[in-house]
Each structure stands twice: as structure tokens, then as C-alpha cells.
Amino acid sequence: MEVLKVSATSKPKSVAGALAAVLREKGMVEIQAVGAGAVNQAVKSIAIARGFVAPNGIDLVCVPAFSEIEIDGEERTAIRFIVGPR
Description:
Translation Initiation Factor IF3, globular, 4 strands, single chain, 38% helix, 2 helices, 4-stranded mixed beta sheet, alpha+beta
């Protein structure tokens, strides 16, 4: 499954376009965000992507989960969103 990493400075519309493209190609995608700002941008991106794929008859669902990742040798907690069709 492809992983899209979102930061607090990511543009939601751009992430939504990438998300929709990966969904159409592979069927599922994982979005990874660390921090409140990044999670905010990720959620907005998922909402926008729903509108992008809805005309194709795809209804998106999202399953959030916690994940431990390492950044610069330091353990961080990330939020993972598994996004796919209903």
C-alpha cells in the first residue's frame, strides 16, 4: 500500500489530488501525519478527495490508527489514515 506523508504545510487540494490518483490506481492508500497541523491538513485532504472520486461512484471511508515512527533517531507517534472505497 502506498504511503502519502502529510505535513502541516501541505496544501490539502494537492494532497487530495494525489490521494485520488493513488486510489484510482491501487484501490487503497495510507496517509501518515505527525502533529496537530499535519492531521488537520490530512483530514481536509480526505474530505476534498471524496468529492473528487464521488462522480466515479466511489464512496471513500477512512480508518484512523496510531503508529510509532522514527524521525531523526527519535520515536514519534503518527496518525495513520487508511483510505479506501466503501
